[in-house]
Design a protein that fits this description.
By secondary structure, this protein is of the alpha+beta class. Among the domains are: 140 residues, no CATH class; 129 residues, no CATH class; 68 residues, Arc Repressor Mutant, subunit A, CATH 1.10.10.60. Helix content is 48%, strand content 7%. The chain has 22 helices and eight strands. The strands form three sheets. The chain has a four-stranded mixed sheet with strand order 3-2-5-6, with helices on one face. A hairpin with a 2-residue loop joins strand 5 and strand 6. Helix 6 packs across helix 8, helix 10 crosses helix 13 and helix 17 packs across helix 18. The chain is extended, with a radius of gyration of 35 Å. The protein starts with 16 loop residues before the first helix and ends with a helix.
């Protein structure tokens, strides 16, 4: 063994900070981009946000002289005396001279805390979030009923423990024996508390199974001992699969009686008692790209509404030119933040250009879809767009993730347009989404008494020129949440 120096030539792919930031910005959703830019605005004093109504590229004359609201710390600048002010500040102050009438008004208003309502109240007003209201949850409602119903501390503690384990659907999924071990509480007391909770509103809450839930509701509706209770107790599986003939035969009753009892169970009983207390938050989709038809062609417009418009503050750029006025540490700090700001601005510009190119390519491939709808959606993969705009497939994947496009046919995720296909009868391929839509329409228009089987759907599609396997039809039907033939069949 010996120690010696060797030169070795090799190639490596190095991710520079600029490239890393550009890739990160590219895959951010619209909301994440707003949050990222806002965070950078707070952390980087060199960046500033333009007013939404300011013309593009407009820079006020005093901007290059006046410092921003949060300039570099005075400790970092050379000591210029207490009265030292950057150039242009005097001019800025003079612009704020609004005349004697304004001064008189300010004198009348005092310190600004009182606006004509007498002396200022020293009491601290509640914050905005403390004045908001929210709908009571299922747990809130049950706890309120529990505390009205019980005074015994032991039962109350057991009831609170049970309510804490009831899920959003209103079910107690955890066995009482396990709860007893977890809380070190007697199982008999927990059982007693559960019996009380099962009488609360909403009806059926606290049940440990679907059968128990429906039985609780049936008994509270005075249906105990009726055909409804018998079907729930003995033939719930047949009821779920709509095997009404099996129920009629087992109970020795007519099919009409079974149908009437089934209607009561379906329309009067709630399989998920907690559904009424589930808060459904509305999430609005804001498109990143608008596709608008102008005469006989489609134009692409990027949606920049709501996105912060940023620029580099000219005060700091000019400050770097005054080498004699700032020390090296301050100069290095400003240069570092300036580079960071430039990377962000260039990254956002590159992001917009890439999104535009990808959207333009999608519009070119899916022109027929924009004109005629989903039945004319063409199969398309990432490679098609990547080759069209000379980019890598991974870049296309990042661009289309969490991005939405507004088209004449509606708002769609950009990923929506990338689908596999099947060979069609006219020689062109048919998108899998088009096949799914066709299957859904066929089942929607079928006769309730004679629902289409998967093999029948295969034959109909084959007659239309689409070759597809039966197992693929079954797979698509399950993805569309369409039940099998036996469940869809309805008499009369």
């Amino acid at each position: 063994m010996e120690a010696r120096l060797e030169l070795k030539l090799s190639q490596k792919l190095i991710m520079t900070p600029q490239l890393q930031q550009a890739i990160k910005l590219l895959q951010l959703s619209r909301l994440e981009l707003v949050q990222s830019v806002s965070q950078e605005l707070m952390e980087n004093p060199v960046l500033e946000e333009l007013a939404s109504d300011a013309p593009e590229g407009e820079v006020a004359e005093n901007d290059a002289e006046a410092p921003p609201e949060a300039p570099v710390s005075q400790e970092a600048l050379p000591d210029q005396g207490q009265s030292a002010e950057p150039e242009g500040v005097t001019e800025l102050k003079s612009d704020l001279d609004l005349g004697p009438a304004w001064d008189d008004y300010l004198n009348e208003m005092g310190d600004g805390r009182d606006f004509g309502h007498g002396e200022a109240d020293d009491k601290e007003l509640p914050s905005y979030d403390q004045t908001l209201t929210r709908r009571p949850s299922l747990s809130d409602n049950l706890l309120w009923q529990l505390r009205l119903s019980l005074s015994d501390p032991g039962l109350l503690k057991c009831g609170e423990w049970i309510i804490g384990n009831i899920d959003d659907d209103g079910y107690l999924r955890t066995p009482l024996e396990e709860l007893a071990q977890q809380a070190a509480l007697p199982a008999a007391t927990l059982e007693q508390a559960l019996n009380i909770i099962q009488r609360f509103d909403p009806s059926g809450v606290g049940a440990r199974s679907l059968q128990e839930c429906l039985l609780i509701q049936a008994r509270q509706l005075d249906l105990e001992g009726t055909l409804v209770e018998k079907i729930i107790q003995q033939h719930l599986t047949d009821l779920e699969k709509k095997r009404y003939g099996n129920i009629a035969k087992a109970l020795g009753i007519t099919l009409q009686e079974v149908m009437e009892a089934a209607q009561v169970i379906v329309h009067e009983l709630e399989p998920k008692p907690g559904r009424a207390y589930t808060e459904d938050d509305t999430h609005y989709v804001v498109p990143d790209v608008y596709v608008v038809k102008v005469e006989d062609r489609y134009e692409i417009q990027l949606n920049e509404e709501g996105l912060p418009r940023v620029r580099i503050n000219p005060y700091y750029r000019k400050l770097l030119g005054r080498k004699e006025e700032i020390d090296k540490a301050t100069k290095d700090y400003i240069e570092e933040r300036l580079r960071s700001a430039q990377w962000l601005i260039k990254g956002m510009e590159q992001r917009n250009k890439t999104i535009y190119k990808v959207a333009e390519s999608i519009v070119q491939f899916q022109y027929d879809f924009l004109e005629k709808g989903i039945s004319h959606l063409k199969p398309m993969v990432l490679k098609n767009v990547a080759e069209d705009i000379s980019m890598h497939e991974s870049t296309i994947s990042r661009v289309t993730t969490n991005k939405y496009m507004h088209t004449p046919q509606g708002i769609y995720p950009m990923k929506y347009f990338f689908t596999t296909g099947f060979s069609g009868g006219t020689g062109s391929d048919v998108s899998s989404l088009t096949v799914k839509d066709t299957i859904q329409k066929m089942i929607k228009e079928e006769e309730p008494s004679k629902p289409l089987k998967d093999q029948q759907i295969v034959e109909v599609l084959k007659a239309q020129g689409v070759t597809i396997a039966r197992r693929t039809v079954a797979k698509y039907r399950e993805e569309l949440r369409i039940p099998p033939t036996s469940v869809r069949k309805r008499s009369g």
